[in-house]
């Protein structure tokens, strides 16, 4: 089951538009993840001097929380965060990132960071129609609703 859930995690993370990234003792901040299953990494485009940048400078620990009903993914991902070179920036640059940097990807304040997950607790749910069906069924039969897949992953 864990390998199936891991596969589901990476596929659904591709559809997540934002989550909360927290580093060290800093407050969580909304960030858009860029899933990279092949490299077992999650990339974030941030600004130099941000909490994510400061933690990555020291190779610190990070936590990424996801609650995305459209993607059917709820997760708490923990891992190491590091500064990344610009070689991956072209692959992960998008319109969301462009909205925050006047100079585009060549803006001097752009900083790419890489989170390498070491563990995650994941809940993968079905679409809203399937979830609604489970709620109705549970209320009619007095059983509990089926919430989808849940488990802990190691990367």
TrEMBL record:
Originating species: Roseivivax marinus
General stress protein FMN-binding split barrel domain sequence ranges: 6-144
Xref: PANTHER family: PROTEIN BLI-3
InterPro entries: Split_barrel_FMN-bd (IPR012349), Stress-Dev_Protein (IPR052917), YdaG_split_barrel_FMN-bd (IPR038725)
UniProt protein name: Putative general stress protein 26
UniProt xrefs under Pfam families: Pyrid_ox_like
Domain of life: Bacteria
